[in-house]
């Protein structure tokens, strides 16, 4: 494995940790069998989103690299190539753990250079993947955000988020907290093959219900809508109906996009499981990583119409931050790494 791009010898935003601080571990338990963890001491944890990103936020926190959810379409797979790990099985089974993430975040939030901007989590890899059950980084991260009344959001497929419900409620009392759960479809056979390491869609929607019942507003990112496999009118209706029954405050569709790294892995999966669809995908994604605009608009329109039919209203904005933090000097920003965006 090559750590050089991320070590102290590197310059600029790529210098995230020192190679001498890497500890590699395996655990002989059923939930972690076949997974290798690389524990590192990160040098920074608040990452700036590239200016060209379509995301509505500028800063992210990612305590992990790689993801045992093993979603075959995951756009973040390309990031593993920076470590000379393959973007297929390596991404699913070689997990980098930033063990000092909570303490580092608390330090960065306390810096007079930090303005208190919104921080998004789960936009690269899932912060509630299976590793979080062992390393428990998120409680310390949420506590730091709560104590600084720093607004944040979490996107996850992990039901482990319910473990931190008391902390989320405390944070929501002093700052704006946004929670979204990703459920692209409710088709069980499709889930088992494209998202094999995730909780079932039903379990995720159960987490939405638990969050909303506890007073934490929770939306659903209906992602990805997978062309020709999860986009029939019947499938869209079933998914939106289930989302509505979960008590979600909103539903936002996002059509599958296939960036380099993810594209090759997904295409191999498609050829093994649905070879008849390979030519159709080649035509649909001939223009690049995204499905044609007309197709995206059609899916969005259908989902919005179904959402209106089932009574899913727009999510309400959270309470304003209750603690004032020092303003950041003009032009100042914390040293941060650049991260891929979700869209």
Automatic annotation (TrEMBL):
Keyword terms, alphabetized:
Iron, Iron-sulfur, Metal-binding
Q: Name one Pfam family in it.
A: Radical_SAM
PROSITE patterns, sorted: RADICAL_SAM
Domain Radical SAM core, first and last residues per copy? 53-301
InterPro entries hit by this protein: MJ0683-like, rSAM, rSAM_sf
The entry's protein name is Rv2578c family radical SAM protein
The organism's lineage is: Bacteria, Bacillati, Actinomycetota, Actinomycetes, Kitasatosporales
């Amino acid at each position: 494995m090559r750590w050089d791009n991320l070590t102290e010898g590197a310059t600029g935003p790529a210098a995230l940790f020192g190679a001498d601080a890497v500890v590699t571990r395996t655990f002989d338990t059923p939930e972690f069998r076949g997974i290798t963890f690389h524990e590192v001491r990160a040098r920074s944890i608040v990452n700036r989103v590239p200016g060209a990103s379509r995301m509505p936020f500028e800063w992210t926190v990612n305590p992990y690299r790689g993801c045992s959810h093993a979603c075959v379409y995951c756009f973040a797979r390309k990031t593993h190539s920076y470590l000379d790990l393959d973007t297929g099985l390596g991404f699913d089974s070689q997990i980098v753990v930033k063990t000092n993430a909570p303490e580092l975040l608390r330090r960065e939030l306390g810096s007079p250079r930090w303005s208190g901007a919104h921080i998004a989590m789960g936009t690269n890899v899932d912060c509630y993947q299976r590793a979080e059950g062992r390393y428990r980084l998120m409680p310390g991260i949420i506590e730091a955000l709560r104590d600084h009344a720093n607004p944040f959001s979490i996107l996850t497929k992990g039901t482990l988020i319910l473990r931190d419900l008391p902390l989320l409620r405390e944070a929501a009392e002093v700052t704006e907290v946004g929670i979204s759960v990703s459920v692209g479809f409710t088709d069980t056979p499709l889930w088992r093959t494209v998202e094999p390491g995730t909780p079932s869609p039903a379990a995720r929607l159960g987490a939405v219900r638990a969050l909303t019942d506890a007073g934490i507003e929770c939306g659903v990112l209906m992602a990805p809508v997978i062309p020709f496999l999860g986009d029939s009118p019947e499938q869209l209706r079933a998914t939106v109906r289930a989302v509505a029954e979960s008590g979600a405050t909103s539903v936002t569709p996002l059509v599958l996009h296939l960036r380099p790294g993810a594209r090759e892995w997904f295409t191999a999966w498609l050829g093994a499981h649905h070879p008849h669809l390979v030519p159709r995908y080649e035509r649909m994604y001939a223009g690049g990583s995204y499905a044609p605009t007309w197709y995206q608009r059609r899916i969005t329109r259908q989902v919005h119409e179904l959402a209106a039919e089932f009574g899913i209203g727009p999510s309400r904005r959270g309470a304003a931050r209750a603690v004032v933090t020092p303003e950041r000097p003009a032009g100042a920003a914390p040293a941060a790494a650049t991260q891929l965006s979700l869209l």
